[in-house]
Structures
1.
Amino acid sequence: MSDDVLFQTAALKSHEPLASRMRPRSLDEYIGQSHIVGKGRLLRRAIQADQLTSVIFYGPPGTGKTTLARVIANHTSSHFITLNAVLTGVANIRDAIKEAEDKKNLYGRKTILFVDEVHRWNKSQQDALLPWVENGTIILIGATTENPFFEVNKALVSRSRVFQLKSLEKEDLIFAATQALNDKERGYGNYKVTFEEGALEHLVETANGDCRSLLNALELAVETTPESWPPLVGSEIYISKEACEESIQKKVVLYDRDGDYHYDIISAFIKSLRGRDPDAACYWLARMVKAGEDPHFIFRRMLISSCEDTGLADPRAIQVVESCAAAFDRVGFPEGNYFLAHAALYLATAPKSNSSMAFFDAMSAVEKEDVEVPNHLKDNNRDAEGFGHGKGYLYPHAYRDHWVAQQYLPDALTGRVFYTPSEQGYEGEIRGDVLSRREAQIAAILEDADDTENLTVNPISDWWAKAGHFAGFEKTEENLTFTPEDKNRNASLNRAENAWKARTELNRAEILLETRNAMISSAEILRHHRCLVVNADDGLLVFDLIRKTPEGHVYGICRTEKGMDTLKQYSSTLAELDQPEYTVQSAGNLWADGNLENAIGNFGDIEIDRFFARNIFATKNDMDNAAGTFTALKEKGMLADNFRIILSQIIPCGGQHMSRLVEESSFARSVMTDEDLMIVEKLEKAEKEFFSDSENPLFNWNENTIEGFFNSNDFSCNVIPFVQVERRKISKAELDRWFDTKNSAYGKFMAEKIGHDSLMKFKELFERTAQKQNFNWKVKNSIIVIGKKIKPPEIQS
């Protein structure tokens, strides 16, 4: 029998759906969700090391929750049991637990229980699992399309790591389709499949991030095109755009009236009304109507907004919304859309006042006496702590004119215009305001403007602030993972950090912590980030980063073997998966001979989300080499797509002037003679010249040089300069070294400018002062944030 006939016979006998056949069998085949299973991520390391603890996978359909569970089943040596919450109940749970107990008692083997649609179990069914998860009889993998923080037993969530899966990107879907078309064993690699221009792209776009939907449509398009299936091996199959359109009739709006999308989209709609953005209001209203949201629910929320946000600034607002709601009831769909749009546009363009909040302030006083919506627009009432929803949203009432420029539309629609007011009647009155606010919004988005200057003395009421609605000034990403607090882990980190602090003197620890906090704040770290620390020996950053990235990972490059051994000793009390990885850089300059690249290579095939280093520039040449190194890391895939490099850099030309220390000392001023005063004045002039010497490579650059250098080398770069004051004791040995007129550049320069004798007299005065007091030693520092240069969005008129 020929190979062609054999192939066709096998295909006829067993024909699983394409989506089932193409399920990834290993982590390397798994598509998307790099924030969970990317190189170096906690979950990937746990699966590879077969050290999985209880987890919950949460995300929309078709994002790979069940597939990821199957990948884990293929990697683990544990016994693996699968249950579907829709089809099983308490009896099935008892059977699974009995089976797990037998495996544990007879063979010492762990059991992983995968429960699909875990939110479908009621409280008693979920409670039945809890004791066995707690005592380690089973390791739970739960999959759910609903937010686990309010649909899954809180006790189970508190004992599980939560990983949020996102809808797949277009690039991921194209890769999945290409993989299916080329795979000869499971896909269509035995045929020559080609597409009309735009046909495959149509399938990808209408799949809406759902890989299962894409593969189902691809299967239908491929297998219904030939006259009979399967055709002969090697046959050409041409897929027209029409065939693809028939495979997916229309785009399905991602919206669940009982789930997260319901709350997030209505939240985005109300915030757009409050923010007076009619374009965004139209968009979110269209999303709800297209998905079949109850119009009475939408009108109810607009009625609330008409008083809560528009208020007495336009008392007619509630009348307009109420009239539109009544008119809708008389007319119904589809003409009723006019009344929904009319009410929404009225509220989105109306002036704003929150004076009615006085009532809530009064309520607060009474209580005291009684002793894939953008993340910042998501509803933060339920899971702000877990996923960080709502963080970065700017509350318009806290700003001048009760408005602030911020993004209300999704990232992909930034700058999109849906509504342009006419010049007639009421619209003519508001036209100027609407257009000027739109221009300000676009400018703020393009320039990433700092709006803190717009804050007025408009108080934010207690009830609102306590509810967590006012979350800060920066748009932030969403936390996609969650791990319950581990007291033992925190205790180990605290011991390591305290040991480091104990080695510092005076307020040195305070200065270093100030630097650390500034760096980490600028990094905008998410829980799943992979962080690299260069020159990690001092432990300043490592332990805090471990604490902040429980589902990520930390790598440290040390200067010395001793430093690395010390860090390993401090880290040894952590669980194996929590322990950072360390290596030692080659001797010599960090940027020379690929030293940094080679050191990172010692960790294997990794990607870095956040890169931290302190004081790594001595000259402009170092900046040039650093830019080349960062470019190479980016091209080799060692830096993640949204990488951020955070540097703390002392600026030498802003160094402390010795003359100023004496001038600021009350003791020195009390003992100085007229001659001493003249010497101090001469020294001050000489120091200014020394620190501004353009011929000296140590001083011919500053923070502006760094910013300009990286901005011109295809990076974005922002520099935040600040001055730190260290309480410092200066020893005689240090003074001898600094004022050495032969071996010290400073001492030699000062002797030439003010004379050897005058310099020695100043040194004597300084020694006497140093014996009496400590000094406020001022250092000019800068936080430097380097990232990928972002192309400004195209603005559509």
2.
Amino acid sequence: MKKFLLLLLLYFPLITLAQLRNGLVTDKTGEPIDGVTIVLHHADSTVAVQISKNGLFSFQQPFIGNYVLTLKAVGYKDMSKAIGLPMDSVTIMMISDDKTLDQVTVSASKPLIVRKIDRVIFNVENSIVASGATVWDALGRAPGVQTRFDSGVTANNKGVVIYMDDKPIRLSGEDLAAYLRSLPSDNIAKIEIMANPTAKYDAQGGAVINIISKKPKGDGFNIVLSAGYTQSTYSSYNPSMVFNYRKDKLNVYGSYGYSRRKKDHTENEYVIFDSPENYSDWRNDKSGIRSGNANSYKIGADYNLSSKQVIGILVNGYNGNNSRPNQVLTTIVNNYKPLPDSILHTQNVSNGKVYQYSFNLNYKIKLDTNGRNINVDVDYVPYQNKNSQQVDTYGTLANGNLLSDNYHIFTPSNQNIDIYSGKLDYTDKFWKKWTFESGLKYSSIRTRNNFDFYNNQATGPELIPNRSDRFEYAENVSAIYASISGDVGNWSFEGGFRGEYTRTNGQSMVLNTNNQNNYFKLFPTLFVAYKMNKDHEINLTYNSRINRPEYWRLNPFKSYTSPYTYLEGNPALQPAFIYNGELGYTYKQQYNISFYLRRVVDYFSNITVQDNGSKLFYDTQRNLDLSQETGFSASFPIQAASWWEINNYAQGSYRQEKSGYLQARYDYHVWGIYLSSNHAFTLNKAQGLKAEISAWYSSPTIQGIYKLARLYDVSAGMSKSLLKGKGTLRLAVNDIFYGNAYRIDVNYENQRNGFYEQNDTRSATLSFSYRLGGNPTAARKRTSASEEEKKRTQ
């Protein structure tokens, strides 16, 4: 607090000399309105234009005399107000206009992509190729975001924590992908990508992606119905609904989505075991189906205790089941022979069920009309994952005779996670242009994992105790943060610190290991922007963050997929620390270019290990020394015509990965480029007929010892407004040239392996949505207490 007061004293003379003319735009409840276009007129001339940020705007030029302000915003009536300048401040209340909302929905005047100083906003509802499918599909359409073959997500080459309406999703890996595939993208208003999150957000993860859902707004009962049908090799479908009831002080809202997904899956894998005694080439041809059913639902209520107090409850739920049958044909060639020595036939069937619930209690009080408020959240998140896997392998020699050693195992597992968390946030505003935020948070996580290993004998299953395990992991994080943001003349500033004290304890009963960690880390954040004039702005960003391993990475249990391959975690895995610096330039608030440096210390990743003597091949986790990247990113939208909007994005990088690994070291360097271009066409505005083409390309890159091949995607779609603008019909074709297939190779010391995987991404989707009642808008943002913990579960 002393530093904060000192900062205020230093800036006070500058603020006084600046003689600020401040304005605030609110709705009838007193909530600030973001994105309002404010135009200052004198006589018949326009002298200045502003866009409100958190409801605030200002005109700092030495205007004197009588002027007129005109204000325009989506969903509100246009209005004018006469003012006399100079003046200290003005507060303007805008009135909502449901009719205007309907008209705007048809014309879709909102930009597809909006770039701000701290985030990029992708308006999903305005994208044809992103709408009508699932949230997972829409996520892959957001600028700079990639969804990977292993169900991972990156933004600007950074690992991410994914939030839904400012609340983290407590899933990771395949569970996260399955959950997002259960949510129809028609329920989503926009996706916010924050490459450098502020101190208010948990320090976990390199970047934050916040998915903002639609929520019908207006008195009475409102509902949005939608359904999508996708055809790839097999068919999938996903109906959904969003509803809202608002009357007087009470607002009740919710949603439900169901998905039935069935996808083809093929993979070609190779492992070359090369030793002085023998050379052996193993080729695995895998084919299978990825299918599953999922239900996702949400119900919440807000009640206004008074004009300044609101209390709310929110319950989210997700349950799903999945099935992954695989047929694997392994051809083994020894010592460069022209014909195989033996062939292994493996049937691997994995079935799983996931249950997750999230209970949130929220209380918010406005202490005054200047923006001073307190927000309290309490959360409880229970999670359960049940999985079973059966592997049956038999082999034949080159002459067709059966091998004597057959392999039949059954491995059921059960994971239970309980997350308790609470947080308190305080916000204060000074001179209407400075904001101070601070808060406290505590979270407690306990995960219990049971894994059993059975040999399937003719007489029945036989438990193998030394291959089974009981693993328990506990984590407690206490956090405190403070930040200040505001403007002084042409300078904009936001800076803060977040301190987190972490205690962890992981115990394996079978291995008799106990891994403990206790550490405190301080994470600074700084944003500085200098506006040279109305067209040119320079900005500087710095922050540091932490990446804690997901819980499944810590589990030492060995999950066998064949007699010679398995996966295992590493209970000794340590968190990675991320340091980001960025210098950027913005022209006319539209065109951006930035140069960045990112350094990750103790970077962890999955790695493959092959034993060339025993012919074992497994995947495990470990900390690597360093991952460092320098590069640039640029965005340049083009309004080619009144009916043609283009959004272009480019990112170039020079990446270095180095570490000790096995008995040697590697030091890899690679240049990379990521390009994306989206073209939106208004073919007939009166009839609501639109089209869209999007494309992206990612050059070859590296991840630890892995070398990843190029990827690309071209998709297109059309949409038509129906039923007086309340209905929308969309047709989209995704990954037309099937370029979104993964190839990874390892060629390091005596490690030579890789795979090529296709996930049935080429598809066509037909969808329809219909709105009853008011117009859907973004849901009320409410940051719950349970932050990044749920994202790390599986």
